[in-house]
Amino acid sequence: MTVKSPPPPSLFERRVVVVVGKGGVGKSTVSGGLASLAAARGKRTIVAEMNGAETMCALFDREPVGYEVDELATNLFTLSIRAEDAIEEYLVRMLRFRILYEVVFRNRYIGPFMNGVMGLSDLISVGKVMDLEWERTDGSHGEESEAPRTWDLVIVDAPATGHGLSLLHAPQSMMDVTRVGPLFNNARSIRDLLADRERTAAVIVTLAEEMPVSETIELANRLRERSDVGIDGIVVNGVPPQLFSSPEVAERWPEVAERGRALGGVAAAAVADAERALRDRVRADKHIATLRQELDLPLIEVPLLAHRDLDAAGLAVVGKHLEPWT
Ligand SMILES: Nc1ncnc2c1ncn2[C@@H]1O[C@H](COP(=O)(O)OP(=O)(O)O)[C@@H](O)[C@H]1O
Ligand SMILES: [Mg+2]
Asked: What is the DSSP string of 121-184?
């Protein structure tokens, strides 16, 4: 069987890497792993956590600081983007006068209407990602400044599947309802950034399990239909390790297992453990094969690491596994 594999993406040549997937599959871990690898390479990297999540601070044993850039390690920064904060910042800047923001957006009739109808909070949340991409060290945003960019790489830790999709689709939705005007232009710039494969990459994180795999296939298809964001690859996270170090060892296993079982006691128990691990791996391989078959995308595996609660050191290990894509 020959499976044609697409060329690996080069994530660190882009400016923005969006990490999407179902809840709990390891989006934050993969975002942190990529960020820690980029930072170690000397790139000023920021992880933008959408939806007000503050996982990075927890991983680095720090108190969350809310809507403020926090330095976690050399070259490694994080910002938790909460829609309310992003909206306030945006509107105060656009409207110039805070009073207008207070009147329009805090208004209990108009505020929810604007937000609900137009997906304004999603748009402005991804708009903040564009701001980070544009930001210059002199504090300006845009092309007119000569100052270097503040961030070499912006990694977006997106919310779980459904909301992640609407977030990425928000610019197009806004363009559909506005058609002209400043909001339209704004939405178009964000859409253009997300759709530009030279500048923006996206990866889907999943687990080698039945539900996550079928949801990943669906997510990839919906991303292709509903957004202009190109998918660069699939990270299969938490894959059970290969038990045997070589084919020779694998070949001798049945005989070894037989002897272990015959011995009984601890030896038999160890054999039973090993057989369970073998079955896990076979099952995982089956799901990975489905992913390869259904999606013509580069795929990388990140093993299940021993400690469930990863820390900064664990992120570096995850980053190491993602190196072929950087
Ligand atoms: N490769 C891995 N090995 C072991 N534990 C992992 C791995 N990836 C993630 N985890 C753990 O699984 C949990 C969920 O991961 P997280 O990155 O927070 O998921 P998400 O951001 O997609 O909700 C966390 O406790 C994390 O430490
Ligand atoms: Mg998360």
From this structure: HHHHHHHHHHHHHHBBTTS-BSSS--SPBS-SEEEEEPPSHHHHHHHHHHHHHHHHHH-SSHHH
Structure tokens at 200: 């923006």
Structural domain boundaries in the chain: 12-236+296-321
Residues within 5 Å of ion ligand 2, judged at the Cβ atom: 27-28, 55
* pTM (two decimals): 0.91
* Residue 297: Cβ within 10 Å count: 18
- pLDDT tens per residue across span 300-317: 999 999 876 689 999 999
Query: Tens of pLDDT along 100-123?
Result: 666 666 666 666 666 666 678 899
Q: Which of these, 70, 14, 34, 17, lies nearest to 302 by C-alpha position?
A: 34
29 and 237 Cβ atoms separated by less than 8 Å: yes
Query: Cβ(241) to ligand 1 under 6 A?
Result: no
Residue type, 305: L
- Written as one string, the DSSP assignment of 217-279 is HHHHHHHHHH--PPP-EEEEEEEPPPS-SSHHHHHHHHHHHHHHHHH-HHHHHHHHHHHHHHH
Mean pLDDT of the chain: 90
Least Cα distance to 324 among 1, 5, 74, 2 occurs for: 5
* Fold observed for domain 12-236+296-321: Rossmann fold (3.40.50)
Best probe residue, ligand 1, of 310, 315, 322 (max atoms within 8 Å of C-beta): 310
